[in-house]
Every structure is written in structure tokens, then in C-alpha cells.
Description:
By secondary structure, this protein is mostly helical. The protein has one domain (5-74, 84-162): Ferritin, core subunit, four-helix bundle (Ferritin). It has 6 helices and no strands. The longest helix is centred in the last third of the chain and has 31 residues, at 118-148. It is elongated, with a radius of gyration of 17 Å.
Amino acid sequence: MNVSEKTIDGLYVLIKQCFEENRWTDRMVSVLGVKFACNQSSLLIHHGVAHAYPKLSDKIGELCLERYNIPVEYGSTNEGKQEYGSVMSMIQELEDRSIAFQNMLMGVMKIAWEDNDLQVYSDLSEILSDYNFIVEQVILLNDKMHYYGEDGIMKFDHDVDKFWSLDENLF
Length: 171
């Protein structure tokens, strides 16, 4: 086998987390659009962030596993039923989760490096370079949300396209 078991296991966990993030973000944007009437923010985050995760999963599976004749395994995901009391808490959690996923991705890169799976490390490094745009965007969203404040969510939603730079075809 051309990829170590530790790296394979790490990749499986990362792929599962892609679907966890997709489900969580799908629910978050649903609440954002319906409960808080932030339709523009909901649409941009849905297409730019939530939809990125299944594409990211496919890219990880294809480049880091299937390329080496290793089939992808998909773990089960949790239900998406989370509730929110404020837009600010939603955007903060989006930032926290995006950075946590970035750290998880770097953790799998470290495993690949340490197990001398440099071909996987190389592909994950390129994937990380693209994922960093998501982190950059959600940090900016959170900064802007704090600037507008909870009382300014309608203005935030109205203006969000002015500071949205994420390409929905990132992956």
C-alpha cells in the first residue's frame, strides 16, 4: 500500500468532518435566512461555504485515496437541528468551526508528513491553500458582524455582498 494506515484513518476522519461541516452550515444558513431574514448572507454562505465541503471531500478522496487505489469510507454524521439566539453567535461559530477544520486539515498533513506519505502531504498542502480562502472570508464576516453589531444585522445583510470575495467554485 502506498499510503500508511495512520494517514488513511486521518483522511477518513477529515472526509467525515467535511460532511459534518456541510450539514452544520446548511442548518445555520437555513436559520439565518428564515429566523433572522438575512437572505443575502444566507445565500452567499450557503453557496460559498456549505457547498464547498462536499466538493472538498470529493477532492480529498480522489487525490489522497482513490489515486492510490484506496476506496473512500464515509462515516455517519450528526443531525442538523441546532438553534441560535443571534446572528452574531452564528457568525462567531462559523468562524470557530472553520478554523477548527483548518487545524484538523493541518493535523492530517502532519500525520502524512510524519508517516512519509509525502505525496498525500503535497496534495493536502494545495487543498489547504484553497481552504484558507474560506477561513479568510469567515474571519472578515465575523469582524464585520462585530462592527455592525446585533442591532445592525439588516444593514450587515444588505452590505454583505460588498465584502464577500469567496468564489463558490473554489473546489
